[in-house]
Amino acid sequence: MLRWVGLLGVGVSILGSAAEPASVELWQAERTFDGQRSTVDLPDTERLAPGATGPVRAQYRLRFRIDDPAVHTAVLIPGLIGQARIGLNGRLLDEPIVDPMRDMSSKWQRIRSITLPRDAVVAGGNVLDIDLAGARSISLSSISVGDRAAIERRQQLLMFASIVGPAVIAVVVATVALCLLLLWVRRHDPLYAYFGLGALGWALHSLWFVFPDMFVAGVHRDVWWNALYAGFVLMLVIFCVRLAGWQWRRFEQSLIAATILGGPLLYAAHAYGALNPAAEYLRLATIAVVGIGLAAVGRYAWTHRTASGALLVVTGGISLAFGVRDWLVGHSGRDNNPVYLVPYAGLPFVVLVAWMLIDRFVDASRKLETVNQDLERRVDAKSAQLTQAVEAMRHAKDTAEAANRSKSSFLAAASHDLRQPIHALGLYMAALGGDRMSADQHQVLDRMQLSLGSLETMFDALLDVSRMDAGAVVPERRAFDLGAMLRRLADEHAPLATDKGLRLSVRIGPAPDDLHALSDALLVERIVRNLLGNAVKYTLDGGVLLSCRWRGDAQGHWRIEIWDTGPGIPRAERERVFEEFVQIGNPERDRARGLGLGLSIVRRLCELLGHPLTMTSVADRGTRFMLDLPATRHVQPPGLPPPKAPTTQATLAGLGVAVIDDDAEVRDAMRLLLERWGCRVYAAADAAQLLDDLRRRGRCDVHAIVADWRLRDGRNGADAIAELRAAFGRPIPAVIVSGDSSPQELTRMHSSGFKCLSKPVASERLRGWLGSLTIERRTKASTAGGEALP
Questions:
Q1: Which of 234, 319, 478, 558 gives 20 to 30 Å between its CA and that of 510?
Q2: For residue 640, what pLDDT is reported?
Q3: Could you tell me the CA-to-CA distances from 87 to 81, 93, 662 in Å, in that order?
């Protein structure tokens, strides 16, 4: 019964919690204290013996069962007094004990909830270990294990009932008390003094309860917290007696003396090791005195029959009931961190004081009413204007987003449809090359391959944008030699600069030998290559400077700068140049000058890596880009394995390749190219058709699968590969080729786990992959002959 008494403070909210998911209540634990193990009921409290020195330390082990570990589970500890190290099934969940002598008495620290990691919870029996330490005492309440959302709601409810509510009420009561004391200074009426001191003591006691270490700590906190409790209650009893008109001088003097002597008497009890029982009975005696005050207020209300008297009777009755309830909860020991209701009894005092002060605010309220009405009219007018502006902005934003989605959808569809014939064309051209062609035919073929290469470059740029939008680009940050990379890029662009009569200079400032850049080397190289390529492409005379300096500031970083003497970028266009398909000074859309995606890719990569990129430009004088990279000390890596032998020229004779593509032109081109490489090709529009064909052949050797991503009837290449692997009963090496560039499809394709190639696929890359498979097969012991389909 007393257990439910301890939950009275949460009221209707606790009653409403019956609809929440059930939780497991742990009321017993295995405790190890002073080297002895025993089973104890919770809450369990251990204190230092008189004259002993701390810390106090004990280990608790609680066992509970969880049927479904996939459910989000949490643990609620309503009363955890002391520093704790908490673990589940041998895994540490909470912070370790830092200083066992530091007292953890704050109410904020006593109510704890811990979310149990799913990977730490097991189906069935679980073990919760709590190592608890404190300077003078420790205490562990009962523990609830259940649904995380329900546990968090219960914790928030306990926090509100134990801390937030009393703190808010205490602040309000303290404010009213100070006002009453100010009235006492002006009127010198002892009623205001007793009531103001009592209300102020009530507020301070409530705040002290919420923030125990606010004034003093240790034993002094326990002494003066109980003394303050007796003091404010006795002051309010004196107020009630005086309000009733009773002239009980000796009674009042006795209560004042008890208020003054409360602290020294408790110190004396502490010296004899009886502080806790002495404080408990002091509170009980104080509560008994409240009955006299309630009787006095009742006599006053009966005599005068006033609203203030009736409110005081209600206040006194609530205070007495709450005091008795709180004392019973503390005395029972069934809750080591209960929700005390005495602080909430201050609320009726606020109502009473509001009743007394309401007349003072009536006149001011009337004067302000007219001003407020005029202000509200103006605010409503401004709000209407603001609402219209916001709606217009929202409509414009929705329109822009819809246009952007339409553009992305169109580009994705167009990219896929265009890549198919270009991919087939590339395969035909690769199959066409050979020694049987004349020199003129080779020249025409070379020009066709250059044109095809330009198309592949444009499609690759579109694909890069889509891959970054899809989140398929994941940086791999490592230390790398920035200077070597910049020199290599300069050598790469030097021929083009020389052909245009430009000076391409490289300047790398001094820095410690072991200082490298820390980033993704491939992505940084892509950024610098795009910026340097633009500088060389758009500069007509003068030169381009690629510089790198180590800036030894507080953190240290590299700064890469790319200067050019080109036409510059107008101020109005400096933000637009980082947008997709924007090119300054290219209204005719000369394809030789690209698609306008270079700076867009640069911006996206810089945002992905978190590297600042700034730009300055002066019309007709040139542009400067500045990129900052973090610096790090380079650690010499262990010896690298010897390079693999090149696989692009490995013979593919006899290699069985399954080709899955719903485009007949692509299948025919792939078949022609692979057969010229010596492969045995089995091509079909889907896996089922291919398996039927293979069954008709009787015996076959399939060593590799080349599958298109987008197939008919909503299926994809991953489905086809899985079907073929299941039919052969082994993991056949596979690669997916695709012309899709939409972020959604790219995400699905890369999450399939297969190697992915983007159409149009260069024949060298495809041959290199097949050659690596051939070498792997030859290095492994394999059985001769084919494999019969199941």
A1: 478
A2: 40
A3: 17, 5, 56
Closest C-alpha to 240, from 183, 276, 194: 194
**What is the identity of the amino acid at 485?**
M
Contact between residue 17 and residue 7 where contact means Cβ atoms under 8 Å apart: no
Among residues 66, 53, 54, 78, which one has the least CA distance to residue 22? 66
CB neighbours of residue 574 within 10 Å: 15
Q: Which amino acid is at 75?
A: V
Q: What does the alpha-carbon distance between residue 537 and residue 521 come to, in Å, rounded to a whole number?
A: 24
Residues near 96 by Cβ (< 8 Å), separated by ≥ 6? 85
Give the Cα separation of 45 and 41 in Å (integer). 10
CB 705 within 8 A of CB 726: no
Count of helices and strands (H, E) across the chain: 20, 27
d(CA 168, CA 164): 6
For residues 143 and 26, is the Cβ–Cβ distance under 8 A? yes
User: Is the bond leading into 760 cis (omega within 30 degrees of zero)?
Assistant: yes
Q: 40 and 50 in contact (C-beta within 8 Å)?
A: no
- Cα–Cα distance between 130 and 85 in angstroms, integer? 6
- Residue 682 burial (CB < 10 Å; 0-12/13-18/19+)? buried
Closest CA to 136 of 177, 208, 96, 83: 83
Tokens at 115, concatenated:
């979310």
Q: How far apart are CA 550 and CA 634, in angstroms?
A: 14
Q: Which tokens belong to 77?
A: 């500890």
Q: How far is CA 23 from the centre of its chain?
A: 27
Joined tokens for residue 728: 């052969």
Angle between the N-to-C axes of helices 439-469 and 598-609, in degrees from 0 to 180, rounded to the nearest 10? 40
Both structure tokens of 114: 């811990």
- CB neighbourhood size of 132 (10 A): 26
Cα gap 581→462, rounded to integer Å: 10
- What is the per-residue pLDDT for 568? 77
Packing angle, helices 249-271 and 219-243, rounded to 10 = 170
DSSP H or E segment with residue 109: helix 107-110
Whole-angstrom distance, CA of residue 789 vs CA of residue 725:
11
Mean pLDDT by 10 residues, the chain (790 residues): 36 41 83 88 82 81 86 87 87 75 69 87 89 85 89 87 83 80 73 77 78 66 80 80 80 82 82 79 82 80 76 78 82 79 74 51 58 81 84 79 60 56 59 60 58 55 55 73 84 84 84 75 83 84 86 74 83 64 49 57 81 83 86 58 46 85 83 84 87 80 86 84 86 83 72 78 80 76 42
Rounded-to-integer distance, Cα 445 and Cα 442, Å: 5
Q: What is the pLDDT of residue 30?
A: 92
User: Which residue reads 């005195």 in tokens?
Assistant: 289
Q: For 667, list phi and psi in degrees, rounded to 5.
A: -60, -45
For 201, the token pair is: 């003591």
Query: In sequence order, which residues have a C-beta less than 8 Å from that of residue 151 and are 6 or more positions away?
Result: 23, 74, 75, 76, 113, 144
Spatial distance between the Cα atoms of 25 and 7, rounded to a whole number of angstroms:
14
Q: How far is CA 696 from CA 675, 693, 707, 788, in A?
A: 20, 5, 21, 11
Q: CA 556: distance to chain centroid?
A: 29
Query: How is residue 263 written in tokens?
Result: 């602290």
Q: Is 322:345 a contact under the CB 8 Å cutoff?
A: yes
Would you call 752 helix, strand, or coil by DSSP? coil
Helix crossing, 687-697 with 717-728: angle to 10°? 30
> Mapped to the 3 state alphabet, what secondary structure does 136-198 carry?
CEEEECCEEEEEHHHHHHHHHHHHHHHHHHHHHHHHHHHHHHHHHHHHHHHHCCHHHHHHHHH
Q: What does the pLDDT read at residue 449? A: 59
| Cα 128 from Cα 83, distance rounded (Å) | 16
User: Quick one: CA dihedral 686, 688, 693, 694, positive or negative?
Assistant: positive
Q: What is the pLDDT of residue 90?
A: 85
